[in-house]
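User: I'm new to structure prediction. If I give you an amino acid sequence, what do you actually give back? Let's try with this one:
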Amino acid sequence: MRGWRAELVIAADDLRSALISACDLSDESDIGRLLDGLANAAAEYRHCLRQLHELMDDPERRYYAADHPALPLRRTIVEQGQRFTVRLPHTEACRKRGIAGWVVPARLLGDTVELLDDDAESQIVLQHLEAGVFISPTNGQPYILRRTA
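Assistant: Good question. You get back a string of structure tokens that encode the predicted 3D arrangement of the chain. For your 149 residues, that looks like this:
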């Protein structure tokens, strides 16, 4: 949702810049393209909002959340080449391989994470987010989330 919100802000800013610079007076097709981009970004953002509200209004989700309170988490910084243990998230890539939810040893390699499971028939390499490794927006450092309790 953040991504679509950012796209919407950028599209609105592009249109605003074009109107301020009066480029609409010389080339109408530019403004039409910018308006189409803004309309598409707004539609995608509205769609994300609608999905979010459906999720938040789901009574089953509310009951589950009430019965299963969130556990406190802390960030653990991971360095390039470092070995660590991670619980694999339920992403599409992990579900397809049948490894979602597994706790496995891993190693951070540039933009990917290598899973070091001895039982695997072949080496598994995943993108950061698919392997439960996040990138800090403030300093760009990779980290994993661990339970504190």
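You can read the tokens as a compact description of the fold. Here is one thing that stands out. The mean pLDDT is 86.
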